[in-house]
Write a structure and sequence with these properties.
This protein is α+β, with helices and mostly antiparallel strands. The protein folds into 2 domains: 178 residues, q2cbj1_9rhob like domain (Jelly Rolls); 205 residues, Leucine-rich Repeat Variant. The chain contains 20 helices and 8 strands. Strands 1-6-3-8-2 form a 5-stranded antiparallel β-sheet. It has a 3-stranded antiparallel β-sheet with strand order 5-4-7, with no helix packed on it. Helix 8 runs antiparallel to helix 9, helix 13 runs antiparallel to helix 14 and helix 19 packs antiparallel against helix 20. The radius of gyration is 22 Å and the shape is globular. The relative contact order is 0.11.
Length: 442
């Protein structure tokens, strides 16, 4: 792997606000032209290779190993990030009408769209892309919004550029393929990346702890929390003068941006806000359950109160552990998801999360598995229970069990026989099992 060109503080802060960062690879135009020709030939002869694009066009590894690309991913996701098994070449056909704006689903999973940077995508263009041949477009600063109405308040930006342009994109940023009125197909290779360990310290070229970026859309408190989390640091922000009762009332407004402002303002109050946030969690879990379950690719724990409780941090853990035993499965699932977002600082909850792997609700099992994975090697005692979940009836539960064992790493050695059996499972479960075996050094 090449020596990474790490991001600066300003670049990381820009990414946390705007949700994207555009880079130029070091290869010359002839290299990208060769890749473009290989991809065009592959499509013309055998069609879309789907997740096999890397073995079919192995020169693409050089893009992933480019110092700027590798450095950006190292900076945002930590030095041990992995290339997710889903990688895909997008062909925007000549004459296409384009797509509608959307957020990508999590392949073979039902993830909560958390605000902390654990996932990213990269869009690589092997040829020049102009406005008239169907570039990708993004809605900047929309990565923290799940509401299309909220996202569409931003103006789209077309990702045009010369051959070799790579845009690193927050996984949840709203984007689309634009219409392609030209007489040439447009190709873009999309890669997914996953953080494999929680941040303990900055992994970029960090010089100054100060949050200097301006603006309040997305909410500045949200972005500042994400920045401090990536630094492995506690957030010390001055609480607003807005009464807590008023902030609590704002949580029930229809505007997503206002709700996010309120939950992070409440989180800034720390421990004193926990009762308000727990009440909000109960209400949201009940009121949004039907709509969350009806929405495609949506975890029922997609709730703003989850973000606030995770932002409060360690003081909320005893209360969340209590909710793991609640009679309402949606609250148990939400509690497990809060612990997943807390990650390593909730390592003392491993026994309770391990018991949750036997829950009758697949959502509780799924979220508890993610929490154990984010806790990492400190969750080693959960390995036998995680190994059992490799045989779960739900593929996305098996998928997460393999991922969690991969994050635990060598301490999950006793799961090796079961992981080897899962290699023959569906493509994502099998790929995660293979990755786990590699990280366990089996």
């Amino acid at each position: 792997m090449t020596t990474p060109i790490l991001l600066t503080d300003a670049q990381v802060q820009s990414y946390l606000i705007n949700g994207y960062l555009t880079l130029q690879t070091a290869h010359d135009s002839a290299f990208h032209q060769q890749l473009h020709q290989q991809i065009e030939s592959l499509y013309a002869t055998t069609g879309n290779p789907s997740n096999d694009i890397l073995p079919k066009v192995p020169e693409l590894y050089q893009i992933l190993q480019d110092p700027a690309v590798h450095g950006a991913l190292h900076s945002l996701l930590g030095p041990d990030y992995i290339v997710h098994p889903h990688r895909h070449c997008h062909q925007n056909l000549s004459g296409s009408a384009g797509q509608g704006m959307h957020q990508d689903s999590y392949e073979n999973d039902q993830n909560v769209r958390h605000h902390r940077t654990r996932w990213a995508m990269a869009f690589y263009y092997p040829h020049e892309v102009t406005l008239d041949n169907g570039p990708s477009a993004i809605l900047p600063a929309t990565q923290y919004y799940t509401s299309a109405e909220q996202a569409h308040q931003r103006e789209e930006i077309a990702l045009c550029g010369k051959a070799g342009t790579v845009t690193i994109v927050h996984y949840d940023l709203w984007h689309r393929a634009m219409p392609n009125p030209s007489d040439r197909d447009r190709f873009m290779v999309k890669f997914l990346f996953t953080r494999m360990s929680e941040p303990q310290s900055p992994t970029w070229d960090h010089r100054d702890d100060t949050w200097t970026a301006e603006g309040d859309d997305p909410p500045a408190l949200l972005c500042r929390r994400a920045w401090d989390w990536m630094r492995g640091a506690e957030t010390t922000t001055q609480p607003s003068d807005t009464p807590m009762a008023e902030l609590a009332q704002t949580l029930q407004t229809a505007a997503e941006a206002e709700r996010l402002h309120a939950v992070y303002a409440l989180a800034a109050r720390g421990e004193e806000a926990i009762p308000v946030l727990l009440e909000a969690l109960r209400r949201e879990a009940t009121e949004r359950l039907a709509s969350n379950l009806a929405a495609l690719h949506t975890n029922p724990s997609q709730l703003e109160a989850v973000f606030a409780l995770a932002a409060v941090g360690r003081p909320c853990v005893p209360h969340i552990v209590d909710l793991l035993a609640d009679e309402d499965w949606s609250l148990r699932a939400a509690a497990a998801d809060v612990l997943a977002d807390l990650g390593a600082i909730a390592s003392d909850t491993v026994p309770q999360l391990t018991r949750a792997l036997q829950d009758e609700s697949e959502w509780v099992r799924r979220n508890a598995i993610e929490a154990l994975g984010n806790i990492g090697p400190a969750a080693a005692e959960a390995v036998p229970a995680l190994t059992q979940r490799l045989q779960d009836d739900e593929s996305w539960v098996r998928h997460n069990a393999a991922m969690a064992l991969a994050k635990i790493g060598p301490a999950a050695a006793e799961a090796v026989p079961a992981l080897k059996k899962n290699i023959e499972d569906d493509k994502y479960v099998g790929a995660n099992a293979a990755m786990a075996l590699e990280r366990i050094n089996a």
